[in-house]
Amino acid sequence: MSMTVKAYLLGKEHMPKEIRRFAVDQDVSTSFEYLNRKVVDVFSTLRNVPYQMFYKDEDGDMIAFSTDDETATLGPPWTPFTTPNPPRSKGA
């Protein structure tokens, strides 16, 4: 069985730049690495650039996640958000 994920690529000021839907098999739904690869597959602009993934909790807060343990606590339904992290210049 699979679940549908609605993912947002955020742009400036965390405004949605692009929105995609994709399926994730429930047996891998707690794998951060799998989700990470899937996000890069659907948002090809994220290839070879650093980015951070977040989800919006029941209070509307954006919570960062980057491990299997954190991904497992999300529980369906959840919506990931990704935001590119531009490289910082020295001294920033």
Automatic annotation (TrEMBL):
Coiled coil: none annotated. Residues 77-92 have a biased composition (Pro residues). InterPro entries: PB1-like, PB1_dom. Residues 2-85 form the PB1 domain. Residues 68-92 are annotated as: Disordered. It comes from the Eukaryota. Gene3D superfamilies: Phosphatidylinositol 3-kinase Catalytic Subunit, Chain A, domain 1. It holds the Pfam family PB1. This is PB1 domain-containing protein. It comes from Oncorhynchus tshawytscha. The lineage of its organism: Eukaryota, Metazoa, Chordata, Craniata, Vertebrata.
